[in-house]
Amino acid sequence: xxxxxxxxxxxxxxxxxxxxxxxxxxxxxxxxxxxxxxxxxxxxxxxxxxxxxxxxxxxxxxxxxxxxxxxxxxxxxxxxxxxxxxxxxxxxxxxxxxxxxxxxxxxxxxxxxx
Amino acid sequence: xxxxxxxxxxxxxxxxxxxxxxxxxxxxxxxxxxxxxxxxxxxxxxxxxxxxxxxxxxxxxxxxxxxxxxxxxxxxxxxxxxxxxxxxxxxxxxxxxxxxxxxxxxxxxxxxxxxxxxxxxxxxxxxxxxxxxxxxxxxxxxxxxxxxxxxxxxxxxxxxxxxxxxxxxxxxxxxxxxxxxxxxxxxxxxxxxxxxxxxxxxxxxxxxxxxxxxxxxxxxxxxxxxxxxxxxxxxxxxxxxxxxxxxxxxxxxxxxxxxxxxxxxxxxxxxxxxxxxxxxxxxxxxxxxxxxxxxxxxxxxxxxxxxxxxxxxxxxxxxxxxxxxxxxxxxxxxxxxxxxxxxxxxxxxxxxxxxxxxxxxxxxxxxxxxxxxxxxxxxxxxxxxxxxxxxxxxxxxxxxxxxxxxxxxxxxxxxxxxxxxxxxxxxxxxxxxxxxxxxxxxxxxxxxxxxxxxxxxxxxxxxxxxxxxxxxxxxxxxxxxxxxxxxxxxxxxxxxxxxxxxxxxxxxxxxxxxxxxxxxxxxxxxxxxxxxxxxxxxxxxxxxxxxxxxxxxxxxxxxxxxxxxxxxxxxxxxxxxxxxxxxxxxxxxxxxxxxxxxxxxxxxxxxxxxxxxxxxxxxxxxxxxxxxxxxxxxxxxxxxxxxxxxxxxxxxxxxxxxxxxxxxxxxxxxxxxxxxxxxxxxxxxxxxxxxxxxxxxxxxxxxxxxxxxxxxxxxxxxxxxxxxxxxxxxxxxxxxxxxxxxxxxxxxxxxxxxxxxxxxxxxxxxxxxxxxxxxxxxxxxxxxxxxxxxxxxxxxxxxxxxxxxxxxxxxxxxxxxxxxxxxxxxxxxxxxxxxxxxxxxxxxxxxxxxxxxxxxxxxxxxxxxxxxxxxxxxxxxxxxxxxxxxx
Lengths: 114, 887
Fold this sequence. Notes:
The structure holds 2 protein chains of 2 kinds.
Chain A: H1 13-25, E1 29-30, H2 31-41, H3 50-62, E2 66-72, E3 78-84, H4 86-110
Antiparallel strand pairs in A: 1-3, 2-3
Helix pairs in contact in A: 1-3, 1-4
Chain B: H1 2-13, H2 15-39, H3 44-55, H4 58-68, H5 70-90, H6 92-121, E1 132-139, E2 144-147, H7 151-160, E3 164-179, E4 182-192, H8 195-199, E5 205-206, H9 211-216, E6 218-219, E7 225-226, E8 231-234, H10 236-243, E9 253-256, E10 259-266, E11 280-284, E12 298-303, H11 309-326, H12 328-331, E13 335-340, H13 341-346, H14 349-381, H15 383-391, H16 396-431, H17 446-471, H18 477-480, H19 490-527, E14 537-543, H20 546-549, H21 554-568, E15 572-578, E16 590-596, E17 607-614, H22 618-622, E18 626-629, E19 643-647, H23 648-654, E20 664-668, E21 674-683, E22 698-702, E23 710-717, H24 725-735, E24 745-746, H25 747-754, H26 756-790, H27 792-800, H28 805-833, H29 835-839, H30 850-876, H31 880-886
Parallel strand pairs in B: 4-11, 8-10, 17-22, 19-21
Antiparallel strand pairs in B: 1-2, 1-12, 1-13, 3-4, 3-9, 3-12, 5-10, 6-7, 8-11, 9-10, 14-23, 14-24, 15-23, 16-17, 16-20, 18-21, 19-22, 20-21
């Protein structure tokens, strides 16, 4: 069942990647943790479809934007933690700047008085 | 970058582990999501259901993981290969034709590359081969371009030229070896003491010569060893063939020229100096006073470390000048040329071989273009597959990779088959010696195999890319739905196809142009007047030994008797002999200065002339013309006056007014004295080295007055000369069983061998041109047939609305003709620009030869037109009614 709110599969790849990078900027998390964070952070507007989250994470891991490590959590279970790499950090900065530009431009058109 | 590579390798190994990890990760996600819902109030089962729904399709995640994995790539390539194999198996005829075509192309080019590699590219199989050089004596003032060196000078060179680490000499001639009852003439090389050390090769069995043996090995004027019994070293090939690779041969004594000769060693198999056909080596020492005017020694040298060729040549020229000042009578005007040994051995063959290599590459391209055409035609029928797959999300790259798999498989199979064909071809080549140097080194070694692999890969790309690329293009919906109203994108497909055919025709034209030029050139060679009539003549070189025949004129008696007996044989018209016979490589061939007696002081008339001793009947046997005076006869006996016969150009040079007859010619015979000779005759010039050689200045002396031990005996018969060989051998055996001839050949064969390289180049290039032309014509035919099939509906409609059959015929055939003409034009332009490449091989023919051009520019389009008539005719048979009904 799909929620009425836009899901991450509606987003372009790049946007989802940027969101994930920003999430990891705050510290290493595992996949579910990233999903929950994004849901909370967007106040439920975006619901994260895991069908697009994990491909994004694997892609970025391959491109050396994030680093992944299997560790044991406090509860004793094996979790795969994702962490931002320096390359990823630089990419995040670039994405943020690009988004800034993009959104300003769109807003100028859409939010202009009729 | 390296990190990525390591990661890829790690991924390759741990593929399964990665997949399990991903499963675990997704399972964890599910668990956590369910746990959250439970804590929000749902019951466990509902929580899990909701969580799973939210997780969505895990396959996307799995696929994303898999596709990035390195191992996945290998797996998917493997799957592509299996699919391609299945597709090829379903069309065995197509696969077979393509594989064979590629095999022919790759096989021919690999074989030729192996030859080029062995003859031209690979360094000689000797230590530090780039430092090895050959030294020639030259005398520009006397017009001597390339001559042997003298033993007297050689000794001084060694002392006075420090830029050479060593200078060795060798001299090859035939000697009779007797083992038990059997005698045969073997090619023996006298080599100086430093010959083997200089070349850096040790004996494979036993040893080479010691310094003592070398110093003691002196020879007399007739090249017979004086002093202690000679020691010999065998070549590897001779040791294998004659003695069955007997390991106990070293230490045994054989009989060489009636003297015991002890075998001290056998050379390794790879050693082929100074020539591959040398069978025996003998040491050679110099006495104190060696002559400085007998230029018969071949000189090899090794440059000192750090010395360049130019420096060394300049230094040796300086030494030669100093020697000329010291010994003006013998050395004046003589200097040296130094050339790298490999270059000297390879000579002209390099040019021919590279031209052939270029030609075979064109052939390979034509073959690949044909396969590409076939694939294009076949690809049309499978066009839907690509459209469907593109529609459901496959990338073009992925499709391209898969569609290239078929041609890759075909090319792999074709390449492997081609390598086998190359092995066969090379084996055949060894049996039919093409007059190429270093041919014994040709083999299908790793370098040639790398070439074969590269050629196969190139074949795969050239033959597969057009069709594969075409197939990955998305087809419009109309085609997907199955009713091809118009074949959309047809224009583009036609362009590729037409371009391929035009390219094929162009390349075939280039090859045909080259081949026809070579054929014309060869015809010109054959038409050259050699100055003698080789038909019906048999040649047998005889090497008498000093011990038995060197005294009391025994050689004279022997040869006179031999010629008498040969003349008495049935079918023999005449017989005679000469120390040096045209086109025959054996026998003493040397120059001596000659001048008219009355102009002894005139330097300009002092020329070197090549000296031959000939018996009576020689000129008649060879079919040479006596232009003035007479041939030798009974008057030219040992106690008669000294007589000489001149060649036409020499007589003209020395006595331009034509009065040579009756005059006297002085011949400086070095150690045998300088005397005047009566000119009793003038004969026509001969091309001694074959049609490509210019006539030389020659003088003929009567053998009776100078009874040389070595003579090439010639016999003219009225029938096939080869049939006479057994009778000749019999006569020789009767006269002296220990004196067999060293190979009996017909003079026609010997003459033909002088331009065998031209013949082989012509045959090979013609073969390439024919195959390429056939392929190109097949290409045209296929394209036209396909076009007719494609446009069947259109043709039917046209006929239905009133087009005549003739119009349809002209339309199709005209299309074919247009393709041919464009191809011929392109090919003609290409051939014109590359004419310079071939011109070095031609003889008496310019690259712009009209006959050759006419053949190519007219014949090919005509044949192409005829070929196009078949599909055009099929087009006219199309029944309009049937076509319109079935749509």
